[in-house]
Amino acid sequence: xxxxxxxxxxxxDLPKSLxxxxxxxxxxxxxxxxxAQDLFAMVDKYLWDDLNHNPVMFLQQVNYARLxxxxxxxxxxxxxxxxxxxxxxxVGEKRPYYSKKYPALKDKGIAxxxxxxxxxxxxxxxxxxxxxxxxxxxxxxxxxxxxxxxxGFIYNKGYFSQRLTEDGWQETDNYLLDFKKLPLLAVxxxxxxxxxxxxxLPGRMVTARVWRLxxxxxxxxxxxxxxxxxxxxxxxxxxxxxxxxxxxxISQEILLGMGGVRVLRLLGYxxxxxxxxxxxxxxxxxxxxxxxxxxxxxxxxAKTLVKKNNVFTTHTPVPAGNDEFPLWLIDxxxxxxxxxxxxxxxxxxxxAHNTQSxxxxxxxxxxxxxxxxxxxxxxxxxxxxSREMWKGLWPDKVVDDVPIGYVTNGVHTGSWxxxxxxxxxxRYLGEDWLENVDDAEMWARLEQIPDGELWAVRQFLKxxxxxxxxxxxxxxxxxxxxQPSQVVASGVxxxxxxLTIGFARRFATYKRANLILSDIDRLMSIINSExxxxxxxxxxxxxxxxxxxxxxxxxxxRMIKDPQTGGRLVFLEDYDMKIARYMVQxxxxxxxxxxxxxxxxxxxxxxxxxxxxxxxxVLDGWWHEAYDGNNGWVVGDDTDYQEPAQQNQHDADLxxxxxxxxxxxxxxxxRNAVNVPVDWxxxxxxxxxxxxxxxxxxxxxxxxxxxxxxxxxx
Length: 714
Prior knowledge:
The protein is built from 29 helices and 22 strands.
């Protein structure tokens, strides 16, 4: 691999004894290391919070006098030394876990392509679960010391921010990211010029520059077309996620897939495994075929070699959710490509041919499936759904023999476990417990934690969520831009001593956020009970083009603002990773109500379970294999109705019944002398023990390595 050069990070105005804070800011290792975050907060907590925990902006704006004061603060200097020593030991240790566990693979490179990466709220270049999973994948790959490199886009307009009108209609604002205020460094060539990659699109050449973002030990390279040599339209290709314009979408996917391969070649990478996270990057298969053909291979030889190294992960259990392009668009963009492959038009189309109700298409999943020997869904149930959905690609096989396996998703423990629980686990699970998060036997030590200590952390985290909601509501009220009813809807009346249920995710209709509203009288009696009250906290965005999803938010918001709810229904606007952390750590129960089998996996419930939050979910996605009868509750049962209305009525009735007869009595019952709910805490412990190891990102990457990366590399 070539020596990758990057521009020097900007020099911040720092006391000499604290000058390495700049180095720390440019590696987002700090995201999953609470002590590093504490360093910045100790200097100026209010500025740190106001800047959305962005250390680059923080060091650009913090008052020098505050830095000087900390440079003379013995307590701060001790923490500073501890953090920097830990950071040096981390980045300096060469592939610790991975090289020991998989010595034959330690030098076999893995390239990971994704349309979005959710790493932290200060980098709003993610839309939802797919991006968060990609971000967690990189963090755990770094922790394990995997020889992984990643490729994606840096969207200068990010994803949208959400604002609700008084009537509950979702309005959107776009960010405009200033890359000088982010931990991005330009990748340079030997002449100190930015590395550029070029991709031919119809009638023009599009140029992208390359930025590097360090995720611990893992480099993430991000493409950016906002350059003066590009047309105004092409400068917008990396402006925002998920355009509904098919010309923009196919251009983005050509740039990611084909351009991404070229970036890695320019930088000297020669990966043995190529992992496509969803079909957006599937054009990398075309670029890799072209490489082999230019080296003198026949098309069939090239296909064999490309298939051997490719890994494809599908996340979508609904045919309409997969990227497919009309054939006229393929003619427009690839008429110069198929002759280079030695194919005519029809032969090229056959690489990804699919038929929809509206006509023939070029399907990105079909392209990826056909040119990958390693294929997987993201949960056991999703594997079954995917084999049925894509059986037509293997007409000679019965459904059970369709070659699509599964690796159930996981979450990065360090990123989603609260600092309070992490400190508690450090004391009782052993100092090295984070190195063994996928070891079920290690988690048995959880029983040693006194009930009172575990419950005290649970109560602290709930108070923190309530304070967060109160603070945001107050700030909104002070802005003068919202009405009193919206202040109440924002959580100003939340209480920290009552049962709190959270629901946060993308507002798509199949996720049924309004299922809890099926019987308003029954809901009112639950939340307004004098002896055993309950509060619900909602958060989430609808895609800007999803009118039914926005209508779902509006209907829910109108109910939340209704005075009869007494402020016990809350909506936290502008859902992002920060709100997600407050919620998965702060509520008591995590509610999930998708219409089966539309949830491929889901990971928010895994994050909640890691923090002792009990899941109450439909038997779909990950919960279908996670639920054992004792580690949470089920919304509905295994009954599947043909009519959605009948399914909704059935599931809603069982939802209310489980709340009334099981969840609420367990939470409020059997309290000991110091008011600890003994049976509830026992269920919390069992929940963590059974779910934390099995749904960790460590377990997930171990399975990817053993079942997919190893075959691709060998």
